[in-house]
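User: I'm preparing a small set of examples for a lab meeting where we compare how different chains pack in three dimensions. I only have the primary sequence for this one, and I'd like the structure in token form so I can line it up with the others. Please keep the answer compact; I'll paste it straight into my notes.
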Amino acid sequence: MDEKGTKGTKGTKGTEGMEGTEGTKGIVSDIERYANGVALLKQALSEVPPEAMKWRPGPGKWSVHEIICHCADSETNAAMRIRYLAGEAAPVIAGYDQDRWAREFDYHSLPLEPALQQVASVRGWTTHFLKSLPQSAWNRSGTHTEMPGTSYTASLWLSIYSEHLEIHAAQIRRTLAEWRNRGAK
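Assistant: Understood. Below is the structure token output for the 185-residue chain.
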């Protein structure tokens, strides 16, 4: 157990006894980063006053509320993507138009709390899944419709999604700063 009372990744299937390899260190580190993303997102969200939640910094820009709804949809997709990569032979990973989804699904009309719960649930479930993967799974690959010519591996997936919520936590803070700078306090 670590200082948070959770089981660490050192003994995870596929990485046990391989702590000295650079690739495994990167995977273990990225899984930790992935696991910590929800806390970062929640912390950023806690700084936003209710009156700023649906404010957009400009045309085509997302509000904080829309960012959280995007994260719910994106993390749900991501959870399935890693499972396809780990469990299927040469899967094709389909991209989607995130801006279209925000418009078509009218994210502002959707409740915020279930979206945030979805992010936390999917991340929690997928963190356990990632820790259970054998070392051989990390090099399995497929193709991604938005990344032609790139070998889309499980390790590439992890490098993308380990920073996904970090990026959106920073986006929330930038949006809040813009809201404050425009005198919308």
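A couple of notes for your slides: The chain has one domain: 40-181. The longest strand covers residues 141-144.

User: Perfect, thanks.
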